[in-house]
């Protein structure tokens, strides 16, 4: 197997608006659910917020210059919905659009292709006050926002992602509540799943009617699930975990229907499915050009033998007997197991089970306990090894016929890591949050070399 990647392979990095921008009260931006959640005592590490984050709103030009110096060909960033439509409906904010115009201008000036994600979890707070993603109207409002943003920016942006990781929005936001808006209502999660899927379909339909020749898609953190044992109970647990995490999203988008086994399970769990309307699956299954896959760690599950611990908040409706287990792999600073080959298996599974579509790994990365040495450098060999292993798995997947066209390292700079706030570092670039100084880590130099040569080193790290 050659170490080279196909000609034109995209070497990118990715970020999210709330995690890096800061400037939450500037130039007409309205509040998002993450502003509210982060300011709620006890929700984030040390009570920190993204009010300043990495100050990217003011330092974007510096960041883009650094990005270009590291040989990135693409930059995937998200637009803050409340920055350009403060209440989630009604009037749009020109000052918000002006920021993203400046960012896109700077990217193109330096030779980096912009890749827009329309939604990376920062729902305008007024829409959550009206019910959030479990309510159908939120899908309609998202389509309006997506269409207006696309109409204004499609002249210079070729690649568009509607939603980032709707699994997190639905299950972590409305199930166990560890993400904004912090609701613990697992019975509402499937309605949220459906309206996120519907919002994607409605947005693609509207965007395609405005301009048809752009690359439109969605990004999912679909799991690759394995049963802990070969027992029928554990195999069924894996089936359901795969259903909640992968098939409830990919099946309606790529096959035009929800998986019948999951609908049966949900009915058996007495989940109200009245939000499913005739014609919805057709709306969701709008043709798309690209599918983004975010991958960090494998998933192994079993059926819980004992009753749930007192006070457990379920992630999935009717899924209280599902239990994740670890298999003894090395772990990142997030406590996530590291198994590079699982990424290959995931890509091959999607390639095998769904109609042909261009795939991109739109996030992949590792949190490490990075420190600045006395000489001012940041050495992160574990992250280099992580990238090397996962890129070799990507290369193997291509050899096996997967139409994989790019890889985006998560993430460009250290940032506000959601409920973990500033306690976890995923970046290729170290950020001193007190001074906002940027220091490219050793992994950044390694990745720049790979991107420049379009190939991995001969020997694995």
UniProtKB/TrEMBL annotation:
Keyword check for Ion transport: no
Reactions the enzyme catalyzes: Hydrolysis of terminal, non-reducing beta-D-glucosyl residues with release of beta-D-glucose
Protein EC: 3.2.1.21
Family indicated by similarity: Belongs to the glycosyl hydrolase 1 family.
NCBIfam families reported in the protein's UniProt record: BGL
PANTHER family, A to Z: GLYCOSYL HYDROLASE, LP05116P
Protein name: Beta-glucosidase
């Amino acid at each position: 197997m050659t170490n080279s990647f196909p000609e034109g392979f995209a070497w990118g990095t990715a970020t999210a608006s709330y995690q890096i921008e800061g400037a939450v009260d500037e130039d007409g931006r309205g509040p998002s659910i993450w502003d509210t959640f982060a300011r709620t005592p006890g929700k984030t590490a040390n009570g920190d917020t993204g009010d300043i984050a990495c100050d990217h709103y003011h330092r974007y030009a510096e960041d883009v210059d650094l990005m270009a110096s590291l040989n990135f060909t693409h930059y995937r960033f998200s637009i803050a919905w409340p920055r350009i439509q403060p209440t989630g409906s009604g009037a749009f904010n020109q000052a918000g659009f002006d920021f993203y115009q400046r960012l896109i201008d700077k990217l193109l000036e330096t030779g980096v292709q912009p890749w827009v994600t329309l939604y990376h979890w920062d729902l305008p707070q007024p829409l959550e006050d009206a019910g959030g993603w479990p309510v159908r109207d939120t899908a309609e409002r998202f389509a309006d926002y997506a269409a207006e943003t696309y109409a204004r920016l499609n002249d210079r942006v070729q690649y568009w992602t509607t939603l980032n990781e709707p699994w997190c929005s639905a299950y972590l936001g409305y199930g166990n509540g560890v993400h904004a808006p912090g609701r613990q209502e697992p019975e509402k999660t499937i309605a949220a799943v459906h309206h996120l899927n519907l919002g994607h379909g409605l947005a693609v339909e509207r965007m395609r009617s405005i301009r048809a020749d752009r690359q439109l898609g969605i990004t999912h953190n679909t799991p690759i699930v394995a049963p802990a044992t070969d027992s029928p109970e554990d195999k069924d647990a894996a089936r359901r975990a795969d259903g909640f995490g992968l098939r409830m999203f990919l099946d309606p988008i790529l096959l035009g229907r929800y998986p019948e086994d999951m609908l049966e399970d949900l009915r058996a769990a007495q989940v109200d499915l009245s939000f499913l309307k005739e014609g919805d699956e057709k709306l969701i299954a709008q043709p798309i050009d690209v599918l983004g896959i975010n991958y960090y760690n494998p998933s192994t599950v079993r059926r819980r033998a004992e009753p749930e611990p007192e006070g457990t908040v379920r992630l999935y409706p009717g899924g209280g007997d599902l239990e994740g287990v670890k298999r003894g792999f090395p772990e990142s600073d997030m406590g996530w197991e590291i198994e590079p080959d699982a990424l290959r298996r995931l890509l091959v599974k999607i390639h095998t089970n769904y109609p042909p579509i261009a795939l991109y790994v739109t996030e992949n990365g590792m949190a490490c306990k990075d420190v600045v040495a006395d000489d001012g450098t940041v050495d992160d060999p574990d992250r280099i090894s992580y990238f090397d292993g996962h890129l070799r798995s990507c290369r193997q997947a291509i050899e096996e016929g997967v139409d994989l066209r790019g890889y985006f390292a998560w993430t460009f700079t250290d940032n506000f890591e959601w409920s973990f706030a500033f306690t976890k570092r995923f970046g290729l670039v170290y950020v001193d949050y007190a001074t906002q100084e940027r220091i490219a880590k050793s992994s950044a130099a390694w990745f720049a070399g790979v991107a420049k040569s379009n190939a991995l080193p001969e020997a694995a790290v």
